[in-house]
Amino acid sequence: AGLIYGQLPKGSIEEAEQDMKKALTINPHRLMHYIELGRIYAQMGRKQEAREFINKGLAMPDTEKDDPETKQRGRETQAKLH
Questions:
Q1: What is the four-CA torsion angle of 81, 9, 37, 72, rounded to 10 degrees?
Q2: pLDDT tens digits, the chain, 82 residues: what are they?
Q3: Which residues contact 6 (CB under 8 A, 6 or more apart)?
Q4: How far is the first Cα of the chain from the last one, in angstroms, to the nearest whole number?
Q5: Model pTM?
Q6: Cβ proximity of 74 and 54 under 8 Å
């Protein structure tokens, strides 16, 4: 199965969730893990969890070069949740 309309195939969204949870456990100081897990929850229709994780990531300080772009993706996803 391929990407359809920019979303992961149904079977792999749960795998993506598990992988991101594992990444978060390994490195809880990386804001990308929170924001990307929130974006996965948004794709799954789990809006409350999506908001919580994205907000947590957005509240963290930028420590990596790509953090501003990651935060922008989080804000864009959040805007679609309302």
A1: -60
A2: 444 455 555 668 999 999 999 999 999 999 999 999 999 999 999 999 999 999 999 999 999 999 999 999 999 999 999 7
A3: none
A4: 29
A5: 0.84
A6: yes
The partner residues of 7 in beta bridges, in order of sequence, read 4
Domain 10-81 fold is: 1.25.40
C-alpha to C-alpha distance for 5 and 69, rounded to whole angstroms: 21
Q: Is 7 helix (H, G, I), strand (E, B) or coil?
A: strand
Question: What residue spans define the domains of the chain?
Answer: 10-81
Tokens in use for 41?
């929850």
Alpha-carbon 71 to chain mean position: 10
